[in-house]
Amino acid sequence: MSIILQALYNEIHRRLILLWSYKFNVCMQVLEIVLLYIGISFFVGGGRLEAPQLANTLLGYVIWFYARIMILSTGSELIGEAQAGTLEQTYMSPVPPAILMIGRMLAILVVATIMFIIPLCGIVVVFHIQYNFHWEGIPVLLLTLSGLFGFSLAISGAALVFKQIDALADLTQNLMLFLTGALLPVALFPDWLAAIANTLPITQGIIVLRSVMLNNKTLAAVWGDGSLIALLINSVAYIILGSIIFFCCDAIARRNGSLGQY
What we know:
The chain has eleven helices and no strands.
């Protein structure tokens, strides 16, 4: 356990150093976060930026942003290590590869939160968006992110086997922006599209978060209406499925001797 915690600490520390070292890039990313959100909200709102509508889309945007960072970063970093010839050295660590991947995801989550907090607060203040903090939102967010971790494990596994997965990563993060209810509630989708949307990693999390944060529902209420149960099932399914895909892809790459090849 101490080795795992040390590896997690080292990964977070490394990313924080990189974050501080490349301030210009961080500033551009923060600007991208703000402009992208305002642009999306402008079109979703029919040319208007109104606080109630912004409060609704901001929750979905935050969850999608976490998904975007996680999906694009995990696979690309494995590919980068394979190109640099250091991936096999990573596998020589006493920490299992899957645990290393989860540690990286946690580190990405920490850095993404640091990057996101300032523009998020700025958007809330400038546009007078009102949120009532509910502690129930914390376990809902963590449960949503756990399912996202499982999905990212599957993407990482694909990177080990197929190497070039940029198109896959772009496709999945774009699908999540438009099909998970991040911009428009899933209730407004046609039935067939809603059925597809409900199987994606972050859809149920966005639904439950909106119920808790905007509609002031308790955990008991969202459990009673089945939305929290659906989120739990979705997250557990993605953790299991993502782990299976990662271990299978890892075994294939080892068997083919292509782990460190690009």
